[in-house]
Amino acid sequence: MTTSPRSDMIRSLTAGVDVLVIGGGITGAGVALDAASRGYRVGLVERADYACGTSSRSTKLIHGGIRYLPQGHVGLVRDALRERTLLLRLAPHVARPLAFVVPLYASTRHPLGLRLPRIVRPFTPLGVRIGLLAYDLFARDPALRHRVVTRETLAREAPELRTDGLRTAFVYYDARTDDVRLTHSVLTTARAHGAVTLNYATVTGLMTAGDRVTGARVEDGLGGGRFEVPARFVVNATGIWAEDVAAMGGPPAFHIRHSKGVHLVLRPGALHGSMAIVIPETDDGRLAFIVPWADRWVLGTTDDAYTGDLDAATATPADVAYLLDHANRYLTRPLRASDIAGTYAGVRPLVAAAAGSTAALSRDHHLSIAPGGLVTITGGKLTTYRKMAEDTVDAIVARDGGRDGGGRPGRTATIRLAGSDGIAAAEAALGAAPLAADQRAYLLQTYGGAAADIAALIAADPALAGRLVDGAPVTAAEVVYACRAEQAVALVDGLYLRTKLAVLDAQAADRAADAVNTLMGRCLGWDRGEMTRQRARYDAVRARETAVAAGGPTGIVA
């Protein structure tokens, strides 16, 4: 369960690798796993914590992208649904089927973002049903086919959904996920195949020999030292920063347009039922979702061009008002600011192909190989990370003398992710631990088979079964596990990315901050001065976000 000491990992990297991956989000994690599973020596470096950027700020969905069908992105939907099917099989602990209700009202003008002439609007339900039939065809899963839903079912499964003026409603299926846990499952699996991963390690430049990229220069964000990582191939998987990193090797052959997406996290009890709700149209011609997640609901998202600080995208009062306004058009009980427990904002990397709205840009991924050999993979969606990684490593294999993966074929379509197995053993171990029923259910749902490792920590120290904050199932053992097994090294990450307390309930995270700081300090050997610095950094993040959200709800993810 315990990862290697940081000095050992740095030593392994400086000895050289075949493939160096820059970026520890879901795409970089996927590339590391794909390359390592083909037998390459792999290193991965991430300048902050894993999944700290866009990979932790999704709508928490593994989905085909129902709104992309009206836009004509059929290939993207087909690939995404294939990947959804694979993830449901390979990672059932972090990808679970979820029903979505699509309500169509007499007033609906642009269902799913499709702009229809007035003359054909009476046939809107038929058009939507044809689209859902295509969705089912691409998914090829008879257990997850769409259907018409009755008002009685809506009253039971989506009781707050407005039914006055309702023409018809459909239910279709996608899947929900925990994006951070998915990233860690991929990283853990990559390490099991020999990859060396290091967070808080910033690439400051590329190494070259003649006109060829031969590695990267890295600065240790914790120890402050600098080191070099020789590599035969370097992959730039840095998401929204991909253009900047690519520029280290020369003028990039692509341009990224950034789009901000904001989500609201609603308090328990704000809504009821089990179905996700599709907001069928928005004023800017898109759609939005209200998704059940972690005993709460996530409402999102926006899609606006963003030119600000990539490290400091935040939800503004205008963003919050936009989401509440659109949701409330379809709910019988209006959502209010008091229903919001937290908010988070992420930035999407969209490869620019045209001027205009970022909502119209394709979510297809873009693979670019610079003259010096730097491989950049960007764009895409959380759902298609595995395909993005496979395409990237296929390109490496081709440059390495193979063809279409010949000699080193991709294997990730059959590799089960860490945590997907051992569920029964983990459930038994949790049953023997001094935990409440909600804690056992939460740990099993969040960690899958890896929950057995958390149960082992509790068996060794029963005090770790304690809740970090009243009313939440999160345990002290998770903090210890994150430090020992998954390289958690900062309090702000422990509260935002690992326990997610600051995402689910920012005020609860404030109450738990000292306890988490103490736990991490014990695990990582922090002295009093370091613990003070860690707490000050967390407080600064919270203060900054509160200031940005002045006049609106606080609790925005850093």
Task: Tell me about this structure.
The chain is 36% helix and 21% strand. With 558 residues, the protein is an alpha+beta fold. It has three domains: 6-54 and 180-255 and 362-399, 3-Layer(bba) Sandwich (FAD/NAD(P)-binding domain), CATH 3.50.50; 72-177 and 257-351, D-Amino Acid Oxidase, subunit A, domain 2 (D-Amino Acid Oxidase, Chain A, domain 2), CATH 3.30.9; 423-548, Helicase, Ruva Protein, domain 3 (Orthogonal Bundle). Strands 3, 4, 5, 6, 11, 12, 13, 14, 15 and 16 form a ten-stranded mixed β-sheet that branches. The radius of gyration is 23 Å and the shape is globular. The relative contact order is 0.14. The model is unreliable at 353-362 and 549-558 (pLDDT under 50).
Short description:
With 558 residues, this protein is an alpha+beta fold.
Topology, element by element:
Blueprint: H1 6-14, E1 17-22, H2 26-37, E2 42-45, E3 61-62, H3 74-90, E4 95-105, H4 124-139, E5 147-148, H5 151-157, E6 166-177, H6 179-192, E7 196-198, E8 201-209, E9 212-220, E10 226-236, H7 242-246, E11 256-266, E12 276-279, E13 288-293, E14 296-300, E15 304-305, H8 317-328, E16 340-351, E17 365-369, E18 375-379, H9 385-399, H10 423-431, H11 437-447, H12 451-460, H13 476-485, H14 491-498, H15 501-504, H16 506-524, H17 528-548
Parallel strand pairs: 1-2, 1-10, 2-7, 4-12, 10-18
Antiparallel strand pairs: 3-6, 4-6, 5-6, 8-9, 9-10, 11-14, 11-15, 11-16, 12-13, 13-14, 17-18
Helix pairs in contact: 2-6, 2-9, 10-12, 12-13, 13-16, 14-16, 16-17
